[in-house]
Design brief:
The structure holds two protein chains of two kinds. By secondary structure, chain A is mostly helical. In chain A, about 70% of the residues lie in helices and about 0% in strands. Chain A is built from 14 helices and no strands. Helix content of chain B is about 25%, strand content about 10%. In chain B, the strands form four sheets. Chain B has a four-stranded mixed β-sheet with strand order 8-1-10-9. By secondary structure, chain B is of the alpha+beta class. Chain B has one domain: Alpha-Beta Plaits (2-Layer Sandwich). The longest helix of chain B has 27 residues. The chains are: A mainly alpha, B alpha+beta. At the A-B interface, helix 5, helix 6 and helix 13 of A face helix 1, strand 2, helix 4 and strand 6 of B.
């Protein structure tokens, strides 16, 4: 068992044509970022508990904001990471067949989904009643259906993590199959979460669940690629590591292209509709947040990573993967906010005026601070999860 | 593929069991009964309103509607079907219904049950204004009900869509699901919380904060007492028009009907063939809002 699974280093796999480079400042940067996110997040969550929802920018006509967008991004990454690592383990693909590598991916998936739940919990109007969704669920609601699926996924992930220490267990691969199934279902049902809302024409599309699955795969493969490159070969040979990295790069590229293809299909159906289209599309493309679509999503999240991933050089792949992982949150936000920002009844906003009764939404500083807390929580879970995995593996090896 | 046959069978069993459990759970709630409301004899109300006012043929519409209300409340709840009709030819846009509702239900800032939408049409000099009060439509196919993850909202036997403030978790899914924007969330604001800011210290400056005592008085929606002051419900909950159920229980018309200066809002039970609303909704110039959403609203507009 190599120690490098717990070292966050930018190590290049030792393969022909791949010079080894160690960038020591990367770990320092991550620690600094974590400390900054955590400090900011503590302030944000303190505001949340002291003042309730009052410092937030969402309201009754745009009820969901930044935290819900981050939530869907987190669950998407979790699904994408798990399905790739799980299938790689099941099919014993080079670079994915080691239990230690599987554990890292499971911890990464949990580090993505658990902070997402934190954000949703803080978003509730009655946080103390969150358990009601498990005690008295209504499965006609996509929210209840998804909550149970996500928690089922967490349980399955935890079981897989435990069984990974006993790779000969005949339950590990079946559970990985179940987890992979859930990983595919969850993002699609996240899309259905919006798609079933007939009140919002922008959301009411059969393509939305497919878009969510594809964006989950894109973001998940990008995150997994970036993390695998950061953590180096670990318990496998440099050749295997290089194969895994190349495969993840191909998956990321393919998923990225597929996503933009599907997105173009979605937009073209609307924009070429002779009977007009929902105003939300205009908001996305030409509204006050046009830059989020064109610059963050299309340019930084599409064109730049595409160019980088098509080129040679691991550094470019790292940058491309990180760009996709970060900027794909704009995909979620560009579904979430414009869908709410258009009302069916014109003039309703002017009928009774209040800051929370408008179709305009801007995230407030408190919301951003809590978003940083979600990031810091994810980083903490990943770090501690890797540490615990390593210690447990060492202990099992010593006692066996 | 490096899975043994046994592992493949187990995988299939796990996935199959998961799918079966999911289908069963969804079917249970799709086909199951709604939350149990009291029905039958215990829901009859023998109300004394207008007991000593003899009926007249030319009596005021409000009196007639109140008399019909009393008659409807004498029936079991499942035999009533509350309906509202709004004559937008008569509405003058005074917003008395909006304010009356806020006063009756002690609505805080950011919560409104019955805004009045102003529609402007035409170009100068042929400009026209039309006013559209928009209460909750109490839809027969309410899109807000199935999306609630905890069954905190449902359609009563008498047609009113209600919210259980003790159960609602405040996820706000129902707010997005309503095409009419009829639901709002109570974020815990108070009108007077920021009053007198910057006022010089002195005897006139509130000693214990600026919040006025009257704002902390409980509301009585759903015939229960709700104390917001200690961050109790309905703070954090979804809130909506409920046709003033607490007033109906004592034989009073909804506040918006009572306070309308133009007699533009009508209310009653169309299961009574002689009721005023029954006559009105049979007219040819009656419409509903957003009919293409197929929500089957119980609020009709005379245009």
């Amino acid at each position: 068992m190599s120690e490098s699974t717990s070292r966050v280093e930018l190590a290049e796999p030792r393969a022909p044509g791949w010079p080894e480079v160690r960038v020591g400042w990367w770990r320092t940067l991550l620690w600094v970022l974590w400390a900054a996110f955590a400090a900011a997040g503590v302030i944000g969550v303190a505001q949340r508990f002291l003042y309730g929802h009052l410092p937030a920018g969402y309201g009754s006509y745009v009820p969901w904001g930044l935290w819900v967008g981050l939530y869907f991004h987190g669950v998407g990454i979790a699904g994408g990471v798990f399905v790739l690592a799980g299938l790689g383990y099941i099919f014993a693909l080079p670079g994915f067949r080691q239990p230690a590598v599987l554990r890292v991916a499971i911890v990464l998936a949990l580090a993505a989904i658990l902070p997402a739940f934190l954000g949703i919990w803080l978003d509730l109007g009655r946080m103390e009643r969150a358990a009601t969704i498990f005690l008295s669920p209504n499965f006609t609601s996509m929210m209840a259906f998804n909550a149970w699926l996500y928690n089922g996924f967490i349980v399955v992930s935890a079981l897989c993590w435990l069984l990974s220490f006993r790779p000969r267990s005949t339950w590990l691969k079946p559970l990985l199959c179940l987890g992979a199934f859930l990983s595919a279902i969850i993002p699609s049902q996240s899309g259905s979460f919006f798609g079933v809302v007939d009140a919002k024409a922008y959301w009411h599309s059969a393509l939305l669940p497919v878009l969510f699955v594809t964006s989950a795969l894109t973001a998940g493969s990008a995150v997994l690629l970036a993390v695998r490159m950061m953590m180096g070969p670990g318990p496998m040979s440099a050749d295997e590591h290089a194969i895994a990295v190349r495969r993840l790069r191909v998956v990321t590229l393919g998923a990225l292209v597929a996503y933009f293809f599907l997105e173009f299909a979605e937009f073209s159906v609307a924009l070429w509709n002779p009977h007009g289209h929902d105003r939300a599309f205009d908001l996305v493309l030409f509204g006050p947040y046009w830059w989020l679509f064109w610059i963050v999503h299309v340019f930084l999240g599409g064109l730049v990573p595409l160019v980088m991933l098509l080129q040679r050089g691991w550094r470019r792949w790292m940058v491309g993967a990180l760009l996709v992982a970060v900027t794909f949150v704009s995909v979620r936000l560009n579904v979430l906010i414009p869908g709410q920002a258009v009302g069916e009844i014109r003039g309703l906003q002017e009928a009774f005026q209040h800051p929370r009764l408008t179709y305009v939404y801007h995230a407030t500083p408190m919301e951003y601070l809590v978003g940083f807390l979600m990031l810091a929580t994810g980083m903490t879970i990943f770090y501690l999860g890797c540490r615990i995995s390593e210690r447990l593996a060492e202990r099992i090896q010593q006692t066996s | 593929m490096s899975m043994t046959r046994r592992e493949a069978v187990k995988a299939g069993a796990l996935v199959g069991a998961g799918v079966a459990a999911s289908v069963a759970a969804v079917l249970k709630d799709r086909l199951g009964p709604p939350p149990a409301d009291p029905l039958g004899e215990e829901t009859r109300r023998q109300l004394s309103a207008l007991k000593h006012v003899p009926p007249k043929t030319d009596e005021d519409l409000l009196v007639r509607m109140q008399r019909e209300l009393v008659q409807a409340m004498a029936k079991p709840v499942e035999q009533r079907r509350w309906t509202m009709v709004i004559d937008i030819r008569k509405c003058v846009g005074c917003h008395a219904c909006t304010i009356g509702c806020i006063a009756e239900n002690k609505l805080p800032p950011g919560v409104v049950y019955r805004p009045v939408v102003t529609e402007e049409s035409g170009t100068f000099p042929n400009v026209r204004l039309r006013f559209l009060p928009r209460p909750c439509m109490q839809c027969d196919k309410p899109p807000c009900v199935p999306v609630c993850p905890v069954k905190a909202t449902w359609k009563r036997p008498d047609g009113v869509v209600v919210v259980n403030y003790d159960k609602c978790i405040g996820c706000r899914y129902c707010l997005t699901a309503c095409p009419y924007g009829a639901r709002t969330s109570d974020f815990g604001e108070y009108y007077t919380d920021s009053a007198a800011q910057g006022a010089p210290a002195g005897p006139e400056r509130p000693a214990l904060g600026s919040r006025a005592p009257w704002e902390e008085q409980p509301s009585h929606e759903y015939a229960k007492s709700w104390d917001r002051a200690r961050h109790g419900s309905p703070v954090g909950n979804a809130r909506k028009c409920h046709f003033c159920l607490h007033r109906l229980e004592v034989g009073q018309l909804p506040m918006c009907v009572t306070t309308c200066i133009g007699r533009a809002t009508y209310f009653g039970d169309p299961n009574d063939p002689r009721a005023l609303v029954t006559e009105l909704i049979a007219r040819h110039n009656v419409q509903v809002l957003l009919p293409h959403k197929n929500t089957e609203p119980r609020v009709f507009y005379i245009v």
